[in-house]
Amino acid sequence: MSDGERAEELIDLVEQNDLTGIRLWLAEHRPHEIADELSRMTGRSVMVPFRLLDKDRELEVFEELDSGLQQEILLGLRNTAFRELLEEMDPDDRARLLGEAPAKIATRALAGLSPAERKMTAALLGYPEDSVGRYMTPETVILHRDLTVGRALEVVRARGADAETIYTLPVVSDGRRLVGTITLSDLVISDDEELLKDLVDVLAPRARATEPVEDAARLIQEANLVSLPVVDSEERFVGVFTFDDALEVIEAADSEDMARQSGASPVGEHYVSVSVLRLVGARSVWLMLLIVAATLTVNVMQVYEATLEEVTALALFVPMLVGTGGNVGAQSATAIVRALAVGEVRVRDLPSVIWKEGRVGLLLGVMLAGIALTIGVLLVGFDIGLVVACSVIAICTWAAIIGSSMPLLARKVGVDPAVVSSPMVATLVDATGLLIYFSIARLVLGI
């Protein structure tokens, strides 16, 4: 049975109120598969299969859902089930949920938590939104640098069950100041009498609790870490940021960048369940801005109206030129936005990026100019073909420079580089490309 058939089967079972069939379906699927199917449902229909989950799987499925659906489910639960579900959540997952939830849900949730869980949640909520502090977990095993390996293993055995991860362990000095980390494998293979201070990796990466979470997630990815210790402004250990949360952050950031590069606002919800009006709202603002920006192209055409009347053949090649320039600019912008996201380029690399992309655009233009010259000569003659060929070279070079520099300049002024999307670059290149085209035409043709 295909994935699509299985998805429809669960929806059909819910619509038919076949409780036995729903229980069997849930028993045959893994938590992430169940969460994906629940995300495709809307309204109160989600509550039926969710309430039929076994208690030990209910939390696993709940933590796989996006925050919007989590809030819907919480509102549909009675007080006891509401409190039990939130109490069992990991502190970092709970903090992010309550940070995005309406005040009504957040207040009710905090009031129902045990004092210990409430304290941890409040501490995480005290960090800025989208900071590492909101995503780290305080539930860890902390080892003091003066412990022996044997004693450290005893501590891990005693406290490891309550920790989110024990594969990489923070090692601290007095006052919880982070010294470095040690892996569980290093502990296991070392002599019981060795001291941790002789084994600790003092060069292990760390993150500040207030720094952007995406930066920390990229660090985990680049350094191939299982977890990243998090410290406060005084280098005191406060928690760990784990790779599973880092993967979610990177996925969300990449999805957001892709939406903005296509000229839309990020939705952040499952596509199947999001409403038509929400999608229209996410796309319409950018389209309105782009249609206003496109008036630049209209103005350029108006300025050179006399030139077009004198040599009407020039108009034939306008779509080809603006399309080629827009594509080259979009390629450069996409490459630089991605390079910025993964840390391959920085703002200070702007001169070298412009120099490299300018040469790339020039070479692409020379390649395409041969095709443009051939088309121009065959259609209207050598003179117009020469104008088109020269314009292709100049426009491709210019488009590559514009497309590569705009994301870096956006980052420099504190704007998300992805906002400088491909449609925005293409619109700007359209107008300036026409200026280049008609200027070359006047020069070559003497009009």
List the helices and strands and how they pair.
Elements: H1 3-15, H2 19-27, H3 31-39, H4 47-51, H5 55-64, H6 67-75, H7 79-88, H8 91-100, H9 103-112, H10 115-125, H11 132-135, E1 143-144, H12 149-159, E2 168-172, E3 178-183, H13 184-189, E4 207-208, H14 213-223, E5 227-231, E6 237-242, H15 243-261, H16 276-293, H17 295-303, H18 305-310, H19 318-341, H20 350-379, H21 382-412, H22 422-445
Parallel strand pairs: 1-2, 4-5
Antiparallel strand pairs: 2-3, 5-6
Helix pairs in contact: 3-5, 8-10, 14-15, 17-22, 19-21, 19-22, 20-21, 21-22
Protein architecture, described:
The chain is mainly alpha-helical. It has 22 helices and 6 strands. Helix 14 crosses helix 15 (243-261), helix 17 packs parallel to helix 22 (422-445) and helix 20 packs antiparallel against helix 21 (382-412). Helix 12 links the parallel strand 1 and strand 2.
Compact summary:
This protein is mainly alpha-helical and 447 residues long. 65% of the residues lie in helices and 6% in strands.
- The protein's oligomeric status is single chain
Distance between the termini: 69 Å
Largest sheet: 3 strands, mixed
Share in helix: 55-70%
Count of individual helical segments: 22
Query: What is the number of strand segments?
Result: 6
Task: Report the principal-axis shape.
Answer: globular
Mean pLDDT: 83
Structural class: mainly alpha
Radius of gyration using CA atoms only: 29 Å
**How much strand content do the residues show?**
5-15%
Q: Unreliable stretches, pLDDT < 50, 5 or more residues?
A: 1-7
Strand order of the largest sheet: 1-2-3
Provide the succession of SSEs: HHHHHHHHHHHEHEEHEHEEHHHHHHHH
